[in-house]
Amino acid sequence: MIEGQLQPLLDSCLNLLRREFGPDLVSVVLYGSAARGTAGSDSDVDLLVVAGGLPGDRWERADIVVRLNMSLEGDLDALRRRTGWYPYLSLLLYTPDEAARFRRIYLDMVEEARLLHDADGFFQVVLDRARERMRQLGCEKVWVGKKWYWRLKADYQPGEEFEL
């Protein structure tokens, strides 16, 4: 199974992120199909990285993502040789202030996230707050075959505004 082969890549990635960001690294969160255990040969590996001191410019952040991906090329190639799977490593980079604000991607993370690194429980608190707000709203995951969508508010009325 592919998921069982992923740990060496995750270990290398975590070590690289620790070297890259040092004490500014706050959280590293695996999410998506790799976290759910449903990754297939066409799946990517989704990681949310929370770090202080990130550049505000999105292009500078993109440069960091490219550099990190290039640094992991050998690990990705080793994974391909072992499994035939050469995933795209999808990294989201947020500052702690950005990560503290609710993001739509957190809807799935409350159920499936694997916290690979979480200094002082920062992201666990973010997920707990999101989970509680979703509970208050009556938010529910609605399955349609093998896919799903989120009904964000159980008693939603057309035109009603609310915050997650």
Q: What best-fitting shape do the alpha-carbon axes yield?
A: globular
CATH superfamily membership: Beta Polymerase, domain 2
The helix fraction, in percent, is 40-55%
What's the order of the H and E elements? Answer: HEHEHHEHHEHEE
For the record, give the distance between the C-alpha atoms at the N and C termini, rounded to a whole number. 36 Å
- Number of DSSP helices? 7
* Largest pleated sheet: 4 strands, mixed
Please write the CATH class name. Answer: Alpha Beta
Sheet with most strands: strand arrangement: 3-2-1-4
CATH architecture: 2-Layer Sandwich
- Beta-strand percent range: 15-25%
How many structural domains can be distinguished in the coordinates? 1
**Overall pLDDT score:** 91
Rg (C-alpha, Å):
17 Å
What class do helices, strands and sheet pairing give?
alpha+beta
Spans of at least 5 consecutive residues whose pLDDT stays below 50 are: none
Number of E-type strands: 6
CATH topology: the name is Beta Polymerase, domain 2
Helices and strands in order, then pairings?
Layout: H1 7-21, E1 25-31, H2 33-36, E2 45-51, H3 58-71, H4 73-83, E3 89-94, H5 96-100, H6 106-112, E4 114-118, H7 122-137, E5 140-144, E6 147-151
Parallel strand pairs: 2-3
Antiparallel strand pairs: 1-2, 1-4, 5-6
Give a verbal description of the structure.
This protein is of the alpha+beta class and 164 residues long. The chain is 44% helix and 21% strand. The protein has helices spanning 7-21, 33-36, 58-71, 73-83, 96-100, 106-112, 122-137; strands at 25-31, 45-51, 89-94, 114-118, 140-144, 147-151. The protein has a four-stranded mixed sheet with strand order 3-2-1-4, sandwiched between helices. Strands 5-6 form a two-stranded antiparallel sheet. The radius of gyration is 17 Å and the shape is globular. The mean pLDDT is 91.
